[in-house]
């Protein structure tokens, strides 16, 4: 499911250069993405807050897609641990998706 969402986001948003799926320590029905988007404006604050897309809520297919949009500069700072991720998010075991 994560692979499908990542590919769809890459196809539909021209600013997204990479999607990172972060499965480590997420719930069974949670998908966490960091989307590096070069069309985002510069941000002065370092508050990183993912958007929660509850999908098929109240059904047996219920799951959550969390998307954290970051600029390329913020992504560099995350990789060098100069900018922290929200909550218990981690880059451990992350998988990169990009346009082919």
Give an overview of the whole structure:
The chain is an alpha+beta fold and 100 residues long. The chain contains two helices and five strands; from the N terminus they run H-E-E-E-E-H-E. A hairpin with a 7-residue loop joins strand 3 and strand 4.
Summarize this entry quickly.
The protein has a single domain (2-97), classed as Beta Polymerase, domain 2.
What order do the helices and strands come in, and which of them pair?
Blueprint: H1 2-12, E1 16-21, E2 30-37, E3 51-55, E4 63-70, H2 72-79, E5 95-97
Parallel strand pairs: 2-4
Antiparallel strand pairs: 1-2, 1-5, 3-4
Key words describing this protein structure:
100 residues, Beta Polymerase, domain 2, 5-stranded mixed beta sheet, alpha+beta
Number of DSSP strand runs: 5
Report the CATH architecture. Answer: 2-Layer Sandwich
Output the CATH topology.
Beta Polymerase, domain 2
Our estimate of the beta-strand percent is 25-35%
Spans of at least 5 consecutive residues whose pLDDT stays below 50 are: none
Mean pLDDT: 87
Describe the global form.
globular
List the secondary-structure elements in sequence, H or E: HEEEEHE
The helix content is: 10-25%
Largest sheet, spatial ordering of strands: 3-4-2-1-5
* Cα radius of gyration in angstroms: 13 Å
Helical/strand content category? alpha+beta
CATH class: Alpha Beta
- Number of H- or I-type helical stretches: 2
Tally of individual domains: 1
Distance between the termini: 18 Å
Largest sheet report: 5 strands, mixed
